[in-house]
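pipeline/complex-builder :: batch 7 item 3
reading input block
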Amino acid sequence: MATPEVTPATALTFDLRSDTVRELNRRLHGPEATGRIRVVNPDGRHAVAVGLDADCEVEIEGHVGYYCAGMNKLATVRVRGNCGVGVAENMMSGTVVVEGSASQAAGATARGGLLVIHGDASARCGISLKGADIVVRGSVGHMSAFMAQKGALVVCGDAGEALGDSLYEARLYVRGTVAGLGADCVEKDMGAEHVEQLRVLLGAADVDADPGEFRRYGSARQLYNFKVDNVGVY
Amino acid sequence: MCGIAGLYTKTDALRSQLGFHLAAMLGQLSDRGPDSAGVAFYRDPAPDGWCKISVHSATGDTDWSDLADALAVQFGDASLNGVRATHAVFTVAAPAEDVQDWLRAAYPQLTLMSAGQTIEIFKEAGLPTGFVRRFDLASIDGSHALGHTRMATESRVTTEHSHPFSTGLDLCLVHNGSLSNHNRLRRALRKEGIRFQTDNDSEVAAGYLTWRLAQGATLEQALDGCLEDLDGFYTFAVGTADGFAVLRDPIACKPAVMAETDEWVAMASEYRAIAVLPGAEDAVSWEPVPGHVYSWGTALVA
């Protein structure tokens, strides 16, 4: 990882075996949400570091439960472990990095920012994506990018069944195999702008992969009422 | 929503603490299923020629020693192995089917929770945390165990409607999800001779496995059959005398996480129920792939 290690002595630290998640989130919503903050012993608890709205860096040492870093805005949240359902759900901006794997619905409805998953993401990754970018170093499960409207899903491994089902205008890039495309999802040409977008996203995610090895998938625009006049909003 | 947990031990030290650890897992899953809780322990096998039966008394006024005496008179020999809250476990010197038939006829007020060589089932309506205390789960040892916390959707909240469900010898099932074709399937299975105690959808899944195994299927084949014949959502954990298996439906609405160390294999609805196990922070953990049968135990899946 390019990110330097936190110096424990200098970072504000929450231990979730003694501090409650409610207390953690309350303080992360206040003036202490600055610089580097450590969270230790998450032990699979839900809703860790949700609703952040400040430019701070939260480092979580261990596995978390559902909805970690949900609704994130401005903050950088790094999970040194696995995530349960719905990591970075409805993220608005900022960055969420998962060093392990993520369960279902990672990045669901996320509107902005970058979600990086260094392991695998399971089913419905990026469901109803609304503008955020997701980079998965491993593989994603079935129904990923279901009804995704805007943003990009980059999969360095394989994609499961029904990728991009009922897709709107999100861009999907997959390096490995795709078990099956969902309704109205088709393979599209990789143009120069797509290679460039992929290069930028892989760089931002600190993932070493050749953009030339990816295929692009997008909407055939047969299922929804696509108007070319609106293309600029996606 | 429900919570399910399974724990398979690999060391003698952990076998003696099986109930303590399963109780901790159920505690984490209490808010996923506050209506009722239940467990199946696999432990202390009955001798050859004997069977083990778990019995529940709803009225609480059954004299279990008298029942042990009556079983001994009927079958030659029997013993009361233990009493936990409203449940008792007996070993009887006879085939399990004979003992079950006799108990149903002679003691219709009792509910038979499980039968086999090693299985013991305890379950009761009410908060899981209270269940863990009343049944003193922490004192139970064994090789492996399954647990369930129930938030009812398909049928009433009673002890009989709680999980685990056992419809076959040493076989039990816990379920998170809901089945939509259980009425039709129950009718079909009754015609095949499978006996049901409730109108619960999950009991039909247990009965379906019993039927498939009786037809000669391996547990893996029987579980694969669920993918074809059961309509609905499910994460199942299925216990047998040798181990346990896990299956999620292909859509996988219901969660599951698994983890393994040198000392144990665990599955749970959520990771927080695994985090309470010794060495969990160093365990290999993963999410089971939908539609794929996972199993642990000796010769569990032939």
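note: The interface with chain A takes residues 28, 250, 252, 255, 257, 270-276, 281, 285-287, 289-290 of chain B (CB under 8 Å).
queue -> next item
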